[in-house]
Amino acid sequence: MNFHILTLFPDMVMQGLSTSIIGKAKENGLISVEAINIRDFTENKHKKVDDYPYGGGAGMLMQAQPVYDAWKSVADKIGRKPRTVYLTPQGQTFSQPMAKELAKEEDLVLLCGHYEGIDERVLEEIVTDYMSIGDYVLTGGELPAMVMVDSISRMVPGVLTNEESGSTESFEGNLLEYPQYSRPEVWMGKVVPEVLLSGNEKNIRTWRKEAAIARTKERRPDMYAKYEALDQCRQVLMKQKLHHMDMIELIARGQAELIYADGATVCLYDNVSGVYFHTTDGYEKGCLGMEKIKEYAQNHGGIDTLYCIALHQEDMCEVAQEVLGVSPFITCKMAVYTKKEKLPITGLYTTNGKTPEGMVEIRRIGVEYAKEAAAFYDGPDGADYVREHLEEFGLYGAFLEEKLVGYIGRHPEGGMGILQVSPEYRRRKIAKALETYMINLSLEIGHIPFAQVVVGNERSVALQESLGLCFAKNLIYWMEK
Ligand code: SAM
Known about the structure:
single chain, Trp Operon Repressor, Chain A, 4 domains, five-stranded parallel beta sheet, 15 helices, globular, binds S-adenosylmethionine
């Protein structure tokens, strides 16, 4: 991902972003950061970039011409109008979901203001998003730009060494993180909570969850209210746990926005994938839920942005068609790995670069494998999906003597999938190795592994059964525009 920072103080941002994790990410080519000095583009012979505001008032304003020309130099270089964020106290408050969303961009321009701000006319011309880092006024946009580069970069695949470690932090699952302790066990008479020394993973998980809830309730009542509302939905969904595992995990992973809930009707929006989810136990209530989804989409970018919805009852398909204008895409069976224990890996795969007889090496892959991966993709989403997925999220590839022979991933809305094995390497337990890897990885980060199998894909059904996944009785109906 490439950051282009338009600023009057390029040294300040470049120095601020040169150390530690962000510095390493730059060295490893995972991100690039350039600072463009707006002053270099002024047509004023004294290198002036500011002037008095018309109508009077305190302070100076950055002029339109140098800002526009600096921006245009970036746009010309990358060959299109880039997403451009103006850092301003008048913007939407920057948040973790926004960091995740922006991390999907290939190029991002961050425009830093100074003095009293920037001439409105150039902002109208180039800015796509207005963002603030909080309700206070700073002297310039450089610190906010650095804050944003730091948090967005952490969401770029591969930047964090433990690539999944972002998923247990504050704000995930609408909870702040639990308190943490390191050595020594006793410091200034204060003792580390006993449970953390017990080695009992289940008790540690329970303690951490309770501590996170208590901390959120005390420090961020606004966030706790959202957590509580979603937790009530989760309890409703748990009554048909297998069938609703997609929605349950959406809530657990902190991706869900609650649109509507009424008894057994729950409607959610996934703020990672942009997919809508709907379930109900009655026709009338289900219809009301569908109307609420329409209303939500209308208020969040317009009905045209609604491109996909997952329904949990067949009689809702016609309703969705009528209300939302979507058509049937695929019907799936939900398969859930309900056990807590990891699966054995002996004889299946390694992760250390070696491939003993009959085993593959599995490792994370990025867009550099787009061509090889697309060459043997035959799933329902089209080969472009593989490239996009590699770009945005990465996949896990199986290798034999450095040749990519299969891969698996996680759909942005949470299910394991995109499982493919090159035809000439089938019947060698490679699919089993890949899914075992994915299940174990999911368990490590506290996810419940699940997969949706397209009805009729008996090879996949057999694989899920052989790995011990349980199937829900009812189906999921995917509708698309
Ligand atoms: N007169 C402006 C106003 O009242 O909205 C404030 C200008 S401020 C002194 C100068 C620059 O600092 C802004 O153009 C903006 O780029 C940056 N800035 C200040 N506070 C910020 C915040 N909370 N978030 C993001 N950028 C901020």
